[in-house]
Amino acid sequence: YATLITVNPEDVLGAAGVIFPGQGSSPPAMTALRASGMDEAIREVIRRGKPFFGVCLGLQVLMDWTEEGETDCLHVLAGTTLKLPPGLKVPHMGWNNVCQAVSHPLWRGIADDTRFYFVHSYYAHSAEPAEVAGTTAYGFSFISAAARANIFAVQFHPEKSHRQGLTLLQNFVRWDGGV
């Protein structure tokens, strides 16, 4: 597989699969996506059924809206992104367990309740329980993985999550977008 890091919507549309990495804040991310036309390219890639993998912010902006800056997002997954509740250390940073809510090709070779590395102050809240692929407890249970058709997105950082993160990324590279 060839890897390309790009901000060009045409490159994204021509890709066999897309990883949307995330770090930072939703308001400037959405501003940049709209200004470049990447918002429509992402939606089109998903409509075409190409494998799509969102990481951290890449999960959060798939939702309808975020309370971070009260920002309209991509409207790909039904739900909102909310700030972690008061009383919790923010950001939630470090290793935590992910309870797999569904069987999915990207979980292949990864045991249920495996630990992944998290760094976030906001979390996705789904309006569609069927789209919840994994949950994590951090003072309450939140969605740490979401999936629908050719979309798989996680709140944690697989690239910082040792062997289990590499396994997840390898599974994505092999995935054809089906469940």
Quick rundown:
With 179 residues, this protein is an alpha/beta fold. The protein has 5 helices and 11 strands; from the N terminus they run αβααβαβββββββββα.
The coarse overall form would be globular
Helical stretch tally:
5
Helix content: 10-25%
The radius of gyration is 15 Å
Protein structure class: alpha/beta
Strand order of the largest sheet: 1-2-11-10-9-6-7
| Counted beta strands | 11
| Biggest sheet character | 7 strands, mixed
Structural notes for this entry:
This protein is of the alpha/beta class and 179 residues long. The chain contains 5 helices and 11 strands, in the order H-E-H-H-E-H-E-E-E-E-E-E-E-E-E-H. The protein has helices at 9-14, 26-36, 38-47, 57-60, 162-174; strands at 18-20, 52-55, 65-66, 71-72, 79-83, 92-100, 114-120, 122-126, 132-137, 141-148, 151-154. The strands form 2 sheets. A 7-stranded mixed β-sheet has the order 1-2-11-10-9-6-7. It has a 4-stranded mixed β-sheet with strand order 4-3-5-8, with helices on one face. A hairpin with a 2-residue loop joins strand 10 and strand 11. The longest helix has 13 residues, at 162-174. The chain is globular. The two termini are 21 Å apart. The relative contact order is 0.18. The mean pLDDT is 96.
